[in-house]
Amino acid sequence: MLAQMPRPHGFVPTMGALHAGHSSLVAAARAECKTVSASIFVNPLQFAPGEDLEKYPRDFEGDIAKLEELGLDLLFSPDTAEMYPPGFSTSVDVGEMGNTYEGAVRPTHFRGVATVVAKLLTIMQPDVLFLGQKDAQQTAVLRRLVRDLGFPVEVRIVPTVRDSEGLALSSRNAYLTPQEREAAPTLYAALTAMRLLLHQGMTKDAAVAQAKSILSPLAQLDYLDLVSAKTFEPLSALQVPAFLIGAARFGKTRLLDNLWITK
Ligand code: AMP
């Protein structure tokens, strides 16, 4: 069936519980491609024991309704046994880029992401892969996967969709208590302050220190840093393209955000 679908074919991998961020990826694919497909698969390989795999939000009926409204042509929603039959043992390791920042906090995460996306690309055979900027390190890891293994696919990065207070939309926002929800936009505020300070010529260390003071006392910061958009290695001074990246815990919920710096 896939072979007969008009090309270009754009593919949007997701873990479901779809929100406006996911919709913008499907809309970007719809605008560029003749065939648009998506996957919904909560990938156990990218969750470590004790993480939120079991309680990860799921809303299959709601997701289908949203995807139909967006004009999706094809949905792939395998169960775990279909993706990982007994004896499945191959994994894709992207190297050092998968070990820092998110990879330092979640050591098996990017191996799980790279493995599932490699398998999804093989199954779906898209011409264009649509990814959200929201998960900046994931975009760098998957660009590297596509380049290193020679997948015949172009990668598009779609800007982060935010709510009116600047909080990046995320399926995990549903876990926040009302108090944490109120505090969460301070992560974005810290990143935008840091961008301004860097553009004004402040050193990275001073900008990080000042940006930290903007974070809510409810936020437990994991990292706030400036990295190369291509290699995800830390930069000591502003060089483009770069990501300003941040991750913080609000109670039990860990949120990520970033800004893409191009000038
Ligand atoms: P997930 O379902 O969390 O695995 O996300 C599926 C895709 O949607 C990934 O490429 C994410 O980066 C992207 N995504 C998630 N949240 C947003 C957002 N707020 N804006 C844009 N893309 C997003």
Write structural notes for this entry.
This protein has helices at residues 20-32, 60-69, 80-83, 102-105, 109-124, 136-149, 178-183, 186-199, 204-212, and strands at residues 9-14, 35-40, 74-76, 128-132, 154-158, 219-228, 242-250, 253-261. Helix 1 (20-32) links the parallel strand 1 (9-14) and strand 2. Helix 5 packs across helix 6 (136-149) and helix 8 (186-199) packs antiparallel against helix 9. It is α/β, with parallel strands linked by helices and 263 residues long. It is globular, with a radius of gyration of 18 Å. The mean pLDDT is 97. Strands 3-2-1-4-5 form a five-stranded parallel sheet, with helices on both faces. The protein has two domains: 2-158, Rossmann fold (3-Layer(aba) Sandwich), CATH 3.40.50.620; 172-261, Pantoate--beta-alanine Ligase, Chain: A,domain 2 (2-Layer Sandwich). It contains nine helices and eight strands. Bound molecules: adenosine monophosphate. Residues 14-15, 21-22, 24-25, 131-132, 134-135, 158, 160-161, 168-171 line the site of adenosine monophosphate.
